[in-house]
Task: inverse folding
């Protein structure tokens, strides 16, 4: 498996896909985190009077938990930044996995078909990112890993991706706080 991953890492198009996937996943978490950090509901309407087994009621309960709502927001913001930074993207992918798995299980639990497709694809993409960094993660997972070989191409390690990630991080926050709050 590691040889196949290493071979894929040599294609610039696959490297760009991986970098872009980190940006997209990170941006989605950063955008969603601002609502929670500011103490705003995930949905515009209160789900308080909806059936107790509905997704909107579940979101309302999380929102009303206060501290927990803010905690989720800060967690998403940190994970989003780690992914977008490219420099700490492996740690971001590891932290993203339990959060994304939790969101996926929630969508299964509430039979939210449309959201289920999105969360499944995000979970699948996260698994891809974890496999991409298998050469680093195998030291945590395997008992006797082989020696470390940095098989990442120079193209994907270029600092421009980090600077661009930080720029996108700031842009997402700006769009959420300034542009969308103005309407």
Result:
């Amino acid at each position: 498996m590691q040889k196949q991953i290493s071979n894929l890492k040599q294609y610039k198009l696959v490297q760009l896909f991986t970098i872009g996937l980190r940006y997209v996943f990170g941006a989605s978490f950063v955008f969603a985190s601002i609502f929670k950090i500011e103490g705003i509901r995930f949905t515009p309407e209160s789900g308080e009077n909806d059936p107790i087994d509905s997704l909107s009621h579940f979101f309302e309960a999380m929102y009303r938990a206060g501290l927990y709502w803010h905690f989720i927001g800060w967690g998403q913001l940190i994970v989003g930044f780690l992914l977008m930074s490219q420099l700490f993207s492996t740690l971001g992918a590891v932290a993203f996995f339990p959060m994304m798995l939790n969101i996926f299980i929630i969508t299964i639990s509430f039979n939210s078909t449309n959201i289920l497709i999105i969360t499944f694809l995000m979970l699948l993409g996260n698994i891809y990112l974890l496999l991409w960094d298998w050469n680093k993660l195998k030291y945590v997972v395997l008992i006797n890993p082989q020696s470390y070989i940095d098989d990442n191409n120079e193209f994907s390690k270029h600092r421009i991706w980090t600077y661009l990630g930080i720029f996108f991080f700031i842009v997402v926050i700006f769009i959420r706080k300034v542009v969308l709050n103005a309407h």
